[in-house]
Every structure is written in C-alpha cells, then in structure tokens.
Amino acid sequence: MSEPVPSDGTVVVIGASLAGLRAAEEIRHEGHTGPVIVVGEEIHAPYDRPPLSKQLLSGKWDVERIHHHTPDALDAIGLEFRLGRRATGLDVDGRSVSLSDGTELAYDGLVIATGAATRNLPGTEGMSNVWMLRTLDDCLGIRADMAAAGAEPRVVVIGAGFIGSEVAATCQGLGAHVTLLEAYHTPLVRVLGDRMGQMCADLHVANGMDLRCDVTIDHLESDPGGPDPVVVCLADGTRLPADVVVVGIGVSPSVGWLEDSGLTLDNGIACDGALFAGDRVVAAGDVANWVRPSTGRSARVEHWTNAAEGGAAAARNLLAGSAVAVPYDPVPFFWSDQYKAKIQMIGLPDAEDEVEVVSGSGTEGRMVALYRSGDRLSGVLAISQPAKLMGYRPLLAAGASFDEALAHGAS
Known about the structure:
Elements: E1 11-14, H1 18-29, E2 36-40, H2 55-58, H3 63-66, H4 71-77, E3 80-83, E4 87-91, E5 96-99, E6 104-106, E7 109-112, E8 116-118, E9 130-132, H5 136-149, E10 154-158, H6 162-173, E11 177-181, H7 189-206, E12 210-212, E13 217-222, E14 230-234, E15 239-242, E16 244-247, E17 251-253, E18 269-271, E19 276-278, E20 281-283, E21 288-291, E22 298-299, H8 304-320, E23 333-338, E24 341-347, E25 354-361, E26 366-373, E27 376-383, H9 386-390, H10 393-397, H11 402-410
Parallel strand pairs: 1-2, 1-7, 2-3, 7-20, 9-16, 10-11, 10-16, 11-12, 18-21
Antiparallel strand pairs: 4-5, 5-6, 8-17, 13-14, 14-15, 19-20, 21-22, 23-24, 24-27, 25-26, 26-27
Helix pairs in contact: 1-8
C-alpha cells in the first residue's frame, strides 16, 4: 500500500524525458505545492525525440523547435531541474536517491522515467563516424559527419526497425547513398509479423533503398583520416565502405542504477496496473513494465504516446496513493514516418497474430490491416489512413471481437 504524497512534500522525477516532464507538469496541474525536482542525465532541457530521426536530422527543423517548452514556459511551471547528472542509487526505505555528483535527494514521492538506452554493436565503442541515435547530440553528430563527407555521403544503417528505417529514409532524402542492413529475413518481423514486415520491405524497395536482409555483421573497421572512414564487414565477406554508420539494433531499459534498490527488475521496472513499483514510487515511459488491466499481462511499450500518457497517469496515482489509484490501461498507439508514408498502429498485437487487409494495399501506399488474436481484435495497422485507423480505436478499447471489427471496416 502506498500512501498519498503530502501536498507540500518533495516529489523527485528521475529522467528529464517526455514521460518525466509530463509527470512533473501533471503534479503541478493537480495542485501540488511542494518542490518538484527533475533530474536529467543530459545537459539539455526536455525535448522531443521523434524528430531526431526525421525533421531535425533532415535539417527541416532547428534545435529550438524540438524542445517541449521555452525556458520562460518551463520557469512558469515551477520545476527545479538538476541536469547533466544521473541517478546512481535508490534507497526505497529511506526515500532518497543518490546522484552522480555525490548529492542525495530526499523525496516524499518518486517518479522513475529513465527511459531506455541504445544497444551498442560490440567492438564499436568510441569508434569515429559510428553513431547510435538516441539523443540530440547524437543527431547533430550524424549531421556533422554527413556534411563533412560532401554532397553524396555513404551511409550504412544497421538495423531496419522503426528508428533505423526512418534514419535510412531521411538520409536518402538528403542525397546520401544509403545501405540498410537487417539481421532478420524481413524488417520489423518481431513487431508486425511476416506479412506486414514484408510490406515494409516493399516500401523500402519501391523508394530505391538498398535493403539487405538476413545479414550478419562480422566487425567494423575504422580509419577516420582515410578515404573510407568506416568499413562495415559482413560475415559473408562483403565490405561496405561508409562515411557514416548508424546503429539501430534496439534499446534496453535504463535500470542498472536500481540493481540494489529492492525494486523488482524484469524487462524494466515491474509495476502494478496503476504504475506503482514500490512505496511512493511509480514508473512511466519506456522503463515501466506494467500489468495491463485489460489483459492481465505485463507490457513495456517504447512509444511516444505511452510516455506522455503514462507520465501523467503515474503522477496522478502517486499523489493520490494506491488505495484510490486509477488503473492505467490505454490503447497503445505509435507511428513512423518513412519516405512519404505514415505508418501507424493502435493496439499491441503479437507478431504471430493473424492479419487481414481490409482496405487498400501496401503497394498503393494506403492500407488498413486488422490483427486477430483468437476471436478478438488485437491491433490495427494503417499506411497513410489516419482517420480510418482511429475509427477502430473505440473497438479496441471495448475489447471488440474480430467480426465486429470486420463489420466496422465494411460499413
């Protein structure tokens, strides 16, 4: 049981992320008068990450545009930021957090929104012209290396997931010669399944992308001052010279600092259906692995809307206490902009779920496909059909049958 946080108590938010900022904003919106301290590992004020692989990487947006608030607007919320430092330990019983600068922060309520860290390709640590895209500084570094290479830089993207695919499409749009490498037989197969993964592969090919699947990376060679700054060496002996390499092979929840905290760590921070991880401790965003009330199964969702909605929900429940907490059970939603296509999904289907295309096709560039789990609708995938997609959202929220979804599509 977690008691309500006193209205004048100190709330500490670990993570100056979208989830962390939304939590801090909601705490003030709920009328909390005590200190709200936001700790962030980066030196930057909270900013939006989706543009890093698209508008900011392409140069269509400047850095100021990706920040969630202007400095004056942040000051008006009444938050205290501790940026450029990270949390190193948590004492749940003593209600305190240790920071990398040696300070200890006592709290009456704690929000953990540390997100996830990019997975590194072994052997590439510290290698020049090799990037993983997670932060603003990563994005600016990729842009700088591409600019230094001239008008037609050679870019190799390792991993054809959503981030890798977006980076590849954006770089190609800038005039780069891009090679997109994927370890599986088709992109996004573990998320979308074989059929819709092949649809994503067809989208790349239709846009002239050099997509290579079923490849294994052997190692990377680096020669920053040479004609080929990086060479990606594949297991079959293929050598791919590059000016820039971007590694997009997934992320891992940032929970290393919690190993001795007593919180349950299981693919993130294990939380109940109201996002509580411990006494006066909640988690939100990429790091939260919570029990979805509608399914009874745990889920960890790495999407923008979950960070925004989960941050606010976690804050409300933390302040109110677990006895009156409201279960967190949203309809998951994410999107990915690639080339001229907007790929969107609602729900959280398994890759093995049956898929039926009910409108359009991938080759047409406009499509709606339904995912079926047993006799239930488990998800909806759309390409450039946002209005039709959102028409299915009430059905997913209500736990509609697949037949009901088919009838809706036919109406």
